[in-house]
Amino acid sequence: MSTNLAIINDKVRASSAWTNLLRSEISKAVVGQKYLVDRLIEGMLANGHILLEGVPGLAKTLAVKTLAQAMDAKFNRIQFTPDLLPSDIIGTLIFDQQSGKFVTQKGPIFANLILADEINRAPAKVQSALLEAMQERQVTIGGETFKLPEPFLVLATQNPIDQEGTYQLPEAQVDRFMFKLKIGYPTKPEEREILDLMGKTLSEISINTIVSPQQLLDSRRIVDEIYLDDKIKDYIVSIVFATREPKNYGLDLENMIQFGASPRATIALALAAKAHAFMQARGYVVPQDVKDIAADVLRHRIIVSYEAEAEGISSEEIIDKVLATVAVP
Q1: pTM, rounded to two decimals
Q2: 3-state class of 231 per DSSP?
């Protein structure tokens, strides 16, 4: 086992070098937001979609766009509005007068990185079309199925302030996001740096290509090889079960949780922990990897009860209590 671990470690060290270069390249345009940038890269490595929540102006769009430039990946931004139709996203059949036939016009979903801006402003039909794309990584246009390009990642934003004209995201769709990230304001020195960088009418920042989509796909295969000990697997399962059966883990949260995390959370915790280890150039997962990404994986999957809402208890506080109670291997 130690020989195999040494081989995996060497592989990870060799193939993860681009992550630091990518972080550095993105920092040319995005000041601070290390947490956001790291989770974007980890989401790509773990092949998981990401939901971003934060007030406008926190560089969410800029970070995703810069990431696409540094990856030489195709990037499309879709602004979600109440009058949006599924065909506006996935495409439609149009009649070609010259040939007298219907031809497929592919929509903006056919890209490597999709920024779904203000996703909660779209109606149910659009949500279901996006859901198929996210889960099946394919779309159906006029009875014909088309595979989406690889890698394919949806990064959706929602504004927590202005809720007028928004639709509640279905739990089934929210569960399909590997991470839900809460993006905060920059620090005072960072804001000063932002002013120096962006406080001009013409601000052109040249972003170099650091990693190709194929390199990312190759790195995913290495991520799959990262060693996950049986004790860590049991730890992950225990964390998820503690959100469903808190009493069995000595947690007095029985009335605080309406629904615990789904089996998708278990899979996401394992994959995200491996991606986190890869970012640290390590060929094995340690409990701290799981703890570091737990809130981002679980915060949108734990549905708090009305009682918890009345007492102002959030899913993050429940996660903190779970992590503090479940025995660490």
Answers
A1: 0.87
A2: helix
In contact, 240 and 261? CB cutoff 8 Å: yes
Structure tokens at 279: 């970012």
The residues pairing with 50 across neighbouring beta strands, listed in sequence order, are 155, 179
- Beta strands, E only, the chain: 49-53, 75-79, 91-96, 101-106, 113-117, 138-141, 144-147, 153-158, 177-182, 257-259, 303-304
The total domain count for the chain is: 2
Q: What are phi and psi of 139, to 5 degrees?
A: -135, 155
Q: Which two tokens stand for residue 237?
A: 């399962």
How would you list the strands of the sheet with 49-53, edge to edge?
Answer: 75-79, 113-117, 153-158, 49-53, 177-182
- Residue 167 clears pLDDT 70, i.e. is over it: no
Residues 68 and 130 in one domain: yes
Residue type, 7: I
Give the integer Cα–Cα distance in Å for 120 and 28: 30
Domain that holds residue 296: 228-325
CA 164 to chain centre: 25
Two tokens at 22?
A: 């990518």
Residues 235 and 144: their CA atoms lie apart, in Å, by 43
Closest CA to 297 of 182, 201, 195, 202: 182
- Element (H or E) spanning 291, and its range? helix 287-298
**What CATH number corresponds to the domain at position 48?**
3.40.50.300
- Please give the single-letter amino acid code of residue 87: S
Counts for the chain of helices (H) and strands (E), in that order: 14, 11
Give residue-wise pLDDT tens across range 109-123. Answer: 999 999 988 888 878
